[in-house]
Amino acid sequence: MSNHNRDHNRAVWFDIPVADLDRSVDFYSAVLDCEVSVECTDELSFGVIAHDEGNGGCLVPRSNEVSRDGGILLYLNVHGRIRDAVAKCAEHGGELVNDVHSIGPHGFRAICRDSEGNRIALHSEVDA
User: Cα–Cα distance between 122 and 77 in angstroms, integer?
Assistant: First the structure.
């Protein structure tokens, strides 16, 4: 991962299916420590995860697509605050699946379920 990617990107782009938009906005705001704004169109409301100069994604109400045990394992950038992000996960309705562990030269990750039941990986280059 380049420094630019580490400092500015959460992922290239992603749609995270959610059952409860408000609950998931609260969860991702706390865990990623960034703004998640709710956008509304005539057909749909969705949460956009702040991404400024980097790439981003959104939370899309699609409860039938939430997968508890499979699907995409998305790595989300929490560089330099992985332990704090894991704590925020539990505080905001998530569940820790695998605690912080080394992934060799690629840094550290923790796998958890978000507030909607999706598996996500929290990633940092350092264990802090």
Answer: 6
**Six token digits for residue 25:** 């906005």
> Which tens digits make up the pLDDT trace of 89-110?
999 999 999 999 999 998 999 9
Q: Is 68 exposed, middle or buried (0-12, 13-18, 19+ CB in 10 A)?
A: exposed
On whether the CB atoms of residues 108 and 101 are closer than 8 A, the answer is: yes
Distance CA 69, CA 101 (A): 20
User: What residues form DSSP beta bridges with 15?
Assistant: 58
Structure letter (DSSP) for residue 33: T
pLDDT tens-digit readout, 35-49: 999 999 888 899 999
pLDDT by residue (tens digit) across 41-95? 888 899 999 877 777 788 999 888 888 777 778 889 999 999 999 999 999 999 9
Q: Are 122 and 94 in contact (CB under 8 A)?
A: no
Going along the chain from its start, the domains and CATH numbers come out as 3-124 (3.10.180.10)
